[in-house]
Design brief:
Elements: E1 10-18, H1 25-36, E2 41-49, H2 56-66, E3 70-75, H3 81-91, E4 96-99, H4 111-119, E5 124-129, H5 140-154, E6 165-168, H6 169-176, H7 185-192, E7 196-201, H8 215-229, H9 232-261, H10 268-301, E8 308-309
Parallel strand pairs: 1-2, 1-4, 2-3, 5-7
Antiparallel strand pairs: 3-8, 4-6, 5-6
Helix pairs in contact: 1-2, 5-8, 9-10
Bound molecules: uridine-5'-diphosphate and magnesium ion.
């Protein structure tokens, strides 16, 4: 990771996942490379086209033919940002890699400082949100709640975290050796626990195109993230079960007393409520078990987390 003769440039990989970025990419990518320039550092740029359905692939191919530093990778379909990051890291050849978004929300002006901190001996350098911008988990209260819950459940504090990170080669190899299919990049990096330097920044607005994180996807991302790092939800099922059992027991005693005292009349409403409560809790519990089971199932199937197509293959 460190000091070589000044004359031999160090190779650093930039990993940039892109999905439907045809609008912004042709201007953003060259701008980004211009901003990132560091003396003594050579860049290779792994731009991963995550199965874009617009003209991103063509735009990327054009950019790559104009600049030898750009190494494009093309997915066969949309596998998601996490898979795109993994693909970039898998193919990176640099002494370090920096993961960042293509839409200018991760300011490349920070890259020289990130590299400086890395050379000072930090295996991980993380760009940290000073104030919450529009990027990441929808922003606002739901995100804060999620981070609170995540920290409680997993013991890992992700508040302010982004995917904008520099990783030393050793960390890249650690991540590559992790066999899990459903990845949660920032969680994995935090979990690995390498000493990290934090650089605060303000998230600027996106340039070109629109953010593609509809609510459903965000919720899935949050649930995935949580389940990958905690089995608290499974433990909660037991707690809820105990609670329902206590309520049901109490109701049973009351019902029995009324029966014996001859005052048992018209218990219909009570029955309905208890039945609904109990079956609701049961279903919820089953659902949570099911989600964990699905993860195990997916892991056992052992399918690759992403597939690459050759640039010359026809697009889907
Ligand atoms: N992205 C991706 N695959 C997806 C969705 C997004 O590779 O399925 C890329 C996108 O092109 C961008 C980065 O991930 O470079 C962040 O996405 P976006 O800006 O939409 O998210 P936000 O900034 O709102 O968190
Ligand atoms: Mg963005």
């Amino acid at each position: 990771m460190q000091p070589m003769a000044e004359s031999v440039p160090i190779l650093v990989s930039l990993v940039i996942p892109v999905f439907n970025e045809a609008e912004g990419l042709p201007a953003n990518l060259p701008w980004l490379l211009e901003q990132a320039a560091v003396p003594g550092v050579e860049f290779e740029v792994l731009v991963v086209d995550d199965g874009s359905r617009d003209a991103t692939a063509e735009a990327l191919a054009t950019l790559a033919s104009a600049d030898a530093r750009i190494r494009p990778l093309f997915f066969t379909r949309n596998f998601g940002k996490e898979a795109a990051i993994a693909a970039g890291l898998d193919h990176a050849r640099g002494e370090a890699a920096i993961v960042l978004d293509s839409d200018r929300q991760h300011p490349p002006q920070m890259i020289p400082t990130m590299i400086e901190r890395w050379r000072q001996g930090f295996a991980v350098v993380e760009a940290f949100k000073r104030h919450r911008g529009e990027a990441d988990l929808g922003g606002g209260l739901p995100a804060r709640l999620f981070y609170r819950l995540f920290a409680r459940a997993s013991g890992i504090d992700l508040a302010g975290q982004t995917d904008f990170k520099l990783l030393d080669r050793s960390v890249i190899e650690t991540l590559k050796a992790m066999p899990e299919r459903r990845r949660f990049f920032r969680g994995l990096v935090a979990w690995a626990g390498y000493p990290s330097a934090r650089l605060p920044f303000d998230v600027p607005p996106r340039v070109g195109g629109t953010s593609r994180w509809p609510l459903v996807r965000l919720v899935r991302y949050a649930v995935d993230g949580l389940m990958g790092f905690s089995d608290l939800p499974l433990q909660l099922i037991g707690g809820v079960g105990a609670l329902v059992l206590a309520v049901a027991g109490f109701a049973g005693v009351v019902a029995l007393y009324q029966k014996l005292a001859g005052t048992a009349l018209d218990g219909f409403t009570t029955v309905i409520i208890l039945l609904a409560l109990a079956s609701g809790a049961l279903m919820l519990g089953l659902g949570i078990v099911g989600l964990y089971l699905a993860r195990i199932h997916e892991q056992l199937q052992g399918r690759p987390p992403y597939l690459l197509r050759r640039p010359e293959d026809r697009q889907p």
